[in-house]
Amino acid sequence: MQAAVATTIVVTGASSGIGRELAIQLAAPGREIWLVGRDGGRLDEVADQVHAKGAVPQIVQLDLSDLDAAARFLHATFAADKRVDVVYLAAAITQFGEFKDTWPGDWKQIYHVNLLSPVQWALHFYQNMVIEGSGRIVLISSLCAYAGYPTATAYATMKAGLLGLFRSLWHEGKAYGVTMHLASPGYVNTSIYRSALYRETTYAKTMGEIKSLGFRIISAEKTARIILRSIHRGEREFALPAYASLMKWAAPRLPMLIDLVHARIVKCFRQAS
Predict the structure, then answer these.
(1) pLDDT at residue number 272
(2) Burial zone of 264 (CB within 10 Å; 0-12 exposed, 13-18 middle, 19+ buried)
């Protein structure tokens, strides 16, 4: 009798935030979960929880901004004959500050982590999935991909790039049996804010500004749960929670509404600064 074939899942950004919660919630007997992230200690903690739920964790401590190191890992570990069923690309960093105060290095760093890295990983696994004739790739984007985000311009720019990647690749992948998804959360309570790059502002001021806008900040656990539920329902492109879904719909149809939100963001930022 042949052994049951395990479902192999790769999660980037698995050491914290949405990626961490996705990995834990995906864990189940018969699944191999590859946990990719920078923080080895936190990855160990996630691996313990994944193992406790009956899955087999594989820890990969890797700085995704190092594209050469990532390329070596991908080609050494996931050759064409290594089946991967689902890939969740959740790693991201952000930056707060007006465009005039950003540094060229900020753009380079965010470009590498938030856009070039997802493209690199998506391309590698997509090529293998095309050969296999099946597979699923989930891009974790942001509401700001649709609406922009003044005072977080670099972040919004790269997330808009993921939107373009998804909307193009979804059509190409259908014929090969590769399914694409794009999840775009609004404000989520993760460590991305504490680790952000701040220019002419601070973490405390930024969090105060976000809270003053009145949009609900949801937990990473709930965000992951909604993402997995939406994918299970077959949704290919979605925003969450409800206010984000509404703004995604409104962005191309009611630009004046988005203008009001953006004006408030800039006003709150400048008052706080």
Answers:
(1) 86
(2) middle
